[in-house]
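Canalicular multispecific organic anion transporter 2
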Amino acid sequence: MGTYVLKTMAAQVDRATLPWDLLLFAVFSASQAALFFLFVYLLYRLCIVPAASALHGRLTSGVLLRDLSFFQATPPGRILNLFTNDVARVDGSLNGSIASLAGQFVNLALSCGVLVAAMPASVLFVAPLLAACYALQQTYLVKLRELRHLDAESRAPLLDHLQEAERGRVLFSAHGVLEARAAAFGDLVARNVRALWPLSCIDLWLGVRLEVLSVVLQVAALGLLLAGSAEPGVLGFVMTYVFQVTGTLSNIAKISAQFEADAVSVARIAEYSSAVDGEEDGFPAGRDGSTPYSDSDPAPAWPQFGRVEFQGVSARYRPGLPDSLQSVSFNVNPGEKVAVVGRTGAGKSSTVMCLLRLMHQTAGKILIDGVDIADVTKVRLRRSLALMPQTQIVFSGSIRQNLDPLGLHHDEEIRNALGVCGGPAIIDKLLGIKDSAETSLLDTIVGPK
């Protein structure tokens, strides 16, 4: 509307209304800016941020609820790439592409409507421009998808190598293989760069062709206007929107191509966020594909006594492998201490993993206080059991966050638990910190160990 006001002002002979026309132009321009700001704000507030948060939450749940076989078969670099590169694309460039693409389509529709209303003959160059931009975009997308896939495939081994270097740096130094490791890392970096370089080149390829196409069509539109002896006001008005339409089409082609490329990250996130190993919402589909299961968790106080029963349990690490446990049956009464003894591979760790449903159970039942753990969601089951690994791990954060990471208990309950195991005395001896009114022991920050 602001441009239309300027066109009207240029066609007027009487300048008496010029101040009012300028005021009207300023009002329309300010209104356009305010509406655009409101549009972007609502888009982010109501659509983009909730969608990104939901995708990240589903991805986290989908990965954490997987069986142990998933982590054994999936390279750590691939999982790390999901939570770094793919999530960054969803939270960053994809969100920006959605907002920009929506704004550009609205701008294109309004600009084309005004342009066709002012000069119906503009359809002669707008239609070919749309077809040419679409053809360029499709050619660009075919190669872009392949290059994005190569980039993702070459990035995962690089992250794996970095993790191995961090974990085995002492061992590599002791055996004198640092130079070989550095050379291997250089080869992985070079492989990733070979995948990234064509990505930059193909963006330039699309940009150059879109700019050339825009210039050719702008010259054609100008020739059409001059041949028709258009008035100066109409000439300026139409050419302004011709430049705007060509620029908008160029932006749409680039942004939509980037949008579809970033959508590959959404597809990967959705793949790992989908139903886990045939389960829906953490419930198994049945050992034989037909066994029904309850859809309700046990009482909030479960497990109250700690009676464990294995009834003919067979389990394997993943489908296709032989059973690691075969028809195991035993009972552990509340308060009993039981030691499982056996050679390597006898099934000691597998027995514990079955309690947390980290393995594929093929037969039998595991009861805790009379409740079949197959009827309990993985989230509730793992929240209700505690596993003490052979290697103790302390995470970065406060003592409260380490003891109660989900924030389900009051400070007094955490203090009582610390007191039962002699925690305050040990912390006082190691860190010299005592629990008092001035200094809360639970807020003491500890590092990863």
